[in-house]
Amino acid sequence: MFDLIPFEHRGKALNNFWDPFDGEFFPDLSKAAFPCRTDIRDEGNKYVLEAEMPGFKKEDIQINVEGDRMTLSANHQEQNEEKDENNHYIRRERSWGSVSRSFDISGIDAQRIEASYQNGVLHLDLPKVHEQKSDSRSIQIR
């Protein structure tokens, strides 16, 4: 199952040249700009994943499962435009953002994943695959 560790955290030391500085000189600004902080709890028969996605609407968020990989992604675009009577700009602002996280979900029953979104937090119930216990028995030879 690999404990639901996000794919982007695996092998970080191999991919990040500045790792020895541990973020002192070169902080990871991408996470500060559009955070998708995630908490994952093991509740016995399921994992509960909560991802903070402030500023996104439910319609902006996509959850895709492909094999043993689940990807959460969201895109948001907003444009405000105000003009005076001569169509000169008084104010024109645009903002957009996107975030994407992938998780290893081997050991999860992907058909039974349930999601909800409220107050900027995406909540996913990830039921574990029930291991089939082998019944011990004797087989008679005919």
Architecture blueprint of SSEs:
Elements: H1 12-15, H2 29-33, E1 38-42, E2 46-52, E3 61-66, E4 69-83, E5 89-104, E6 114-118, E7 121-127
Antiparallel strand pairs: 1-2, 2-7, 3-4, 4-5, 6-7
What's this entry about, in short?
With 142 residues, this protein is mostly beta strands. It has helices at residues 12-15, 29-33; strands spanning 38-42, 46-52, 61-66, 69-83, 89-104, 114-118, 121-127. The longest helix is centred in the first third of the chain and has 5 residues, at 29-33.
Summarize the structure in words.
The protein is mainly β and 142 residues long. It has one domain: Immunoglobulin-like, CATH 2.60.40. It has helices at residues 12-15, 29-33, and strands at 38-42, 46-52, 61-66, 69-83, 89-104, 114-118, 121-127. Strands 1-2-7-6 form a 4-stranded antiparallel β-sheet, with no helix packed on it. Strands 3-4-5 form a 3-stranded antiparallel β-sheet, with no helix packed on it. The two termini are 42 Å apart. Residues 7-34 have low confidence and may be disordered.
Identify the CATH architecture: Sandwich
- Please describe the biggest sheet, giving its number of strands, its sense, and whether it closes into a barrel: 4 strands, antiparallel
Number of discrete domains: 1
Class from helix and strand fractions: mainly beta
Uncertain regions: pLDDT < 50 for 5+ in a row? Answer: 7-34
3D shape: rod-shaped
**CATH C-level label:** Mainly Beta
CATH topology: Immunoglobulin-like
Radius of gyration: 22 Å
The amount of beta strand, in percent, is 35-45%
What average pLDDT do the residues reach?
Answer: 76
User: What does the oligomeric state look like here?
Assistant: single chain
| Ends apart, CA distance between termini | 42 Å
Helical run tally: 2
Helix content: under 10%
Strand order of the largest sheet: 1-2-7-6
- Please tally the β strands and state the result: 7
Q: Helices and strands, in N-to-C order?
A: HHEEEEEEE
